[in-house]
């Protein structure tokens, strides 16, 4: 059932991505902003599909999405219409090794990845299709370890490498031209 839902999401995403691919949108690159890794994608893509493809790419690399915090739902209660999700992710074997060294390491390898769309005050009728950059970002776990003074976390660099790869693959999925029909991952 999950594979059927994933296939359905991917097919819908491909259909919605066609216009951007035809327009020749280039694959954005993941850069650093201080201690954060940040990728900005054009707002022509469906925000929720970007989140779904990112979750798929994380899963393909052995990462578990433990929770999705719907910041946007909370903000609607205050009259703000935004797209904002925080994915709490972890990789069990990395956490096992880190916690065996020090339980404080769980602060360094349990990661939050934020996905949001920069939307300026838009009327609710255009909210679903409002343009605005889609941003995917996370904080470097090695830098987090320095903040809590636990030394170099085991798998810190591997965590960065794998999360970067999942995010970059998500961007490629939405911007590749000749292979737009291929499965991500």
Descriptive notes:
The chain has helices at 2-22, 47-60, 71-76, 92-101, 106-109, 141-148, 156-175; strands spanning 31-33, 36-41, 64-70, 83-90, 111-117, 134-139. By secondary structure, it is of the alpha+beta class. The chain has one domain (2-175): 2-Layer Sandwich (TATA-Binding Protein), CATH 3.30.310.70. The chain has a 6-stranded antiparallel sheet with strand order 1-2-6-5-4-3. Strand 1 and strand 2 (36-41) form a beta hairpin. The two termini are 20 Å apart. Residues 1-24, 125-130 and 177-185 have low confidence and may be disordered.
Quickly list its features.
TATA-Binding Protein, single chain, 7 helices, 185 residues, alpha+beta, 20% strand
Number of H/I helices: 7
The name of the CATH architecture is 2-Layer Sandwich
Q: Can you tell me the CATH class?
A: Alpha Beta
Main β-sheet, spatial strand arrangement: 1-2-6-5-4-3
Indicate the mean pLDDT. Answer: 77
Give the termini distance in whole angstroms: 20 Å
Q: Given the C-alpha coordinates, what overall shape results?
A: globular
- Sequence of secondary-structure elements: HEEHEHEHHEEHH
Low-pLDDT residue intervals, each spanning 5 or more residues: 1-24, 125-130, 177-185
Q: If you compute it from the alpha carbons, what radius of gyration comes out, rounded to the nearest whole angstrom?
A: 17 Å
């Amino acid at each position: 059932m999950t594979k059927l839902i994933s296939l359905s999401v991917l097919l819908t995403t491909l259909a919605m991505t066609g216009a951007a691919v035809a327009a020749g949108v280039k694959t954005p690159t993941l850069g650093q902003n201080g201690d954060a890794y940040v990728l900005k994608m054009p707002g022509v893509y469906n925000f929720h599909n970007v989140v779904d493809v990112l979750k798929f790419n994380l899963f393909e690399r052995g990462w578990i999405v433990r929770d999705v915090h719907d910041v946007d739902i909370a903000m609607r209660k205050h009259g703000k219409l935004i797209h904002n999700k925080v994915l709490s992710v972890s990789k069990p074997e990395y956490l096992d090794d880190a916690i065996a060294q020090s339980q404080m390491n769980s602060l360094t390898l349990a990661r939050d990845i934020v996905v949001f769309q920069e939307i300026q005050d838009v009327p609710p009728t255009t909210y679903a299709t409002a343009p605005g950059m889609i941003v995917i970002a996370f904080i470097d776990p090695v830098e987090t370890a320095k903040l809590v003074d636990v030394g170099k976390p085991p798998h810190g660099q591997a965590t960065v490498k794998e999360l970067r790869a999942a995010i970059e693959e998500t961007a490629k999925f939405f911007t590749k031209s000749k292979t737009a029909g291929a499965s991500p991952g």
